[in-house]
Amino acid sequence: MTDARPRPKMRTVGGTLEAFEQDLISNLYYQRGTTLESASGPDGYHTLAVTVRDRLVGRYARTAAAHYQANPRFVYYLSAEYLLGRQLRQNLLYTGTEQFVRPIAEDLGVSLEELEAYDVEPGLGNGGLGRLAACLLDSMATLDIPAVGYGIRYEFGIFKQAFRDGAQVERPDDWTFYGNPWEFPAPDDRQVVGFYGSTAPALDDPSGLRRQWTPAETVRGEPSHMLVPGYGTPTVNIIRLWQARASRESFDLSRFGAGQYKEAVEDIVQAENISKVLYPDDSTEQGRELRLKQQYFLVACSLRDIIRRYRLRNTGWDAFPAKVVIQLNDTHPVMAITELMRLLVDEYRLDWDLAWSITRRTFNYTCHTLLPEALETWSVELLERLLPRHMEIIYSINHFFLQEVAATYPGDLDKMRRLSIIQEYPEKRVRMAHLAVVGSTAVNGVAELHTRLLAETTLRDFAELWPQKFHNVTNGVTPRRFVRLANPRLSELITERLGDEGWLTDLERLDRLAGAADDPAFLERWREVKRLNKVDLTHQVERSTGVVVDPDALCDVMIKRFHEYKRQHLKLLHVITLFNRLREMPEMDMVPRTVLFGGKAAPGYHAMKLLIRLVNAVAETVNTDPVVSRHLKVVLLPDYNVSRAQVIIPAADLSEQISLAGKEASGTGNMKLALNGAVTIGTLDGANIEIRDRVGAENFFLFGLDAQQAVDLRRHYEPRAYYERDPELRAAVDAIASGVFAKGDRSLFAPVVDAMLGRDEYLALADYRAYVECQDAVATAWRDRDRWTRMSVLNAARTGFFSSDRTVREYCDKIWRVDPVRVEPD
Ligand code: CJB
């Protein structure tokens, strides 16, 4: 795919203001059955949403027609998670109707903000992986790539986080309580999926490779889709979400008649549980049967739908890999490889070798982790029970694969054992990442370091066997949501400086801002934008926590899932160090700081839930200390999600990216923050390295061990030695142990201290001194306002590379080999 291609001019499908207003009133009347006089808030929101949505439907219809006509190669993106963010503002922007809404709303005496309060974000994901999926879909549509995203329509999304006595409590996310105006049900495309049961030989197959599966249970998958508009183009793609429904026979009328109400709906409940809830564990495996059911449900429904779509314009199977490319977003949808084999061999009666050749040419796999414990495996016993035919297919795939291995490395049994899709000890399990690599054409990591480490460590044997399979595609983020929508003030300033909005679809144009980094008037305006954004954030902080923070303080932000490898505890040790310093020297001239944390911990991740409690306890102590709180405030903003990210990111001065080197696959918050002018303090981990390469070492606060040093140190690491050697570190750890943050209770946070002084798995104590010194350098830099602002401008100017448009172009060039399809303009 080439970058330089003529783009259709941005058009509005909004029509005129009068027409828009007319449609609003008519939708209020006919869709909600109410009138202006008696409409409620939800009525107003819903009406506005469908009025905007309807302006995308024509584009979607033209997109579908253009795709049908062109019969192109499609990208099918399979992901168990999507974090789409709120839809209203995005779609107002993408349809060009934003301009109408304010005057109309004013006329009607409501504000857009009031209506937006009902715009709930679909929280169908946990963190970075789910948000990446949403960014890639946005970019695919923007680049006119024919693509469909497939996912699960979880009834309850990622839990809502609240704090009780500082501890995280999880509440269900009933995100469709008011209905979801952005969604179209597509009941005609429902699918039926089987589970359990038994297999038998196919009578007419001498090879024994074709068999017949008779499931013991069936579930219906009902699809609906949400529109994924491109920006500055008429292309509107879709994301198709599956919801599990019981087959009609599941309702036991006779039992109901006999008063056995619970038993009568038992089967329904069981079937519908499949899409009931998003699993809230982030990269640790719970090994639950229901989760495997979810995964199979997603891929079985999606593959049937992909085949249905393929057959609309194609016959036979030879062309399948030329028309269909399936991207597996991590291992959650990897069962798709076995399901396609089952469909081709058992149901469409292709011979095994042809089916395998088609399958391998169809799939690609993106790996998002390096943590061995995050690599999914499923017990053979569970698979044999839940998906007996798939287990047989996995054995056959493995058998042929190991023959290949044996031919390449004769007699190397150790190699065979390491490469095998089946892990034998301590129990037999299926390694999903191995299945993914064996069944795919391309495998990619998500940042340069990640890809290199995948090839050197986690997937080393595979990289040696098939070096050409491995690619790097560094992640990216959509500038539409994370700059234009999140930060309208900065966007306006950028557009004014660059002359037009072209940067929104060609983000590397931001490099022209670099010249402005020496223009004092521009720096002043840049600072003013940041300050106003910080004022907005302080309001949000005060509303949700009651803490009053100073918009002129350095806004130091750590927003991400709570995980040990991300090292929120290292940040906390720094905070406690500042606290101790201020207590000891109340007169010291410290740079005022607001340290803002945001993030959820998996409900079963006790160590991180305790850390959340500790963050809140430290915050309480700091914020109520009359001396310390003059210089330092600490806030853990509850319920961090995409919408909150959109408020925090534009206000951030300092971006904390302090994972232990070699652990964070990429990170994407690091990119969003840099693009909004936050300066990074970080380790040489994930995409931090590429950010630093681009913004320049002088505009990045680097500290800590690199990945190799971390591995070397781990071999003989003694955290206690660091504790004993460094008085400030000792004071920080001792403060936690002393109970000062727990009203004198020394036992509450003892496990945090024990983990630090015991094993300190992620070497926080080893990096502590370098980190604190680096933070001192941050404070020094902050005092020089122009120097800081120049760094801020250069961070934004030089991170245009991290647009997900560039990421999608790389996928197109290296992996997908798809071409854009132009859609008839409005
Ligand atoms: N990631 O969010 C998740 N969940 C997982 O289960 C595994 C990985 C994250 O994916 C992001 C997108 O690639 C990465 O930027 C991030 O480093 C990784 O932790």
UniProtKB/TrEMBL annotation:
GO cellular component: cytoplasm
Keyword field: Carbohydrate metabolism, Glycogen metabolism, Glycosyltransferase, Phosphoprotein, Pyridoxal phosphate, Transferase
Cofactor(s) this protein requires: pyridoxal 5'-phosphate
Stored InterPro entries: Glycg_phsphrylas (IPR011833), Glyco_trans_35 (IPR000811), Pyridoxal_P_attach_site (IPR035090)
EC number: 2.4.1.1
Residues modified as N6-(pyridoxal phosphate)lysine: 672
BP-aspect Gene Ontology terms: glycogen catabolic process
Descriptive protein name: Alpha-1,4 glucan phosphorylase
Record lineage: Bacteria, Bacillati, Actinomycetota, Actinomycetes, Micromonosporales
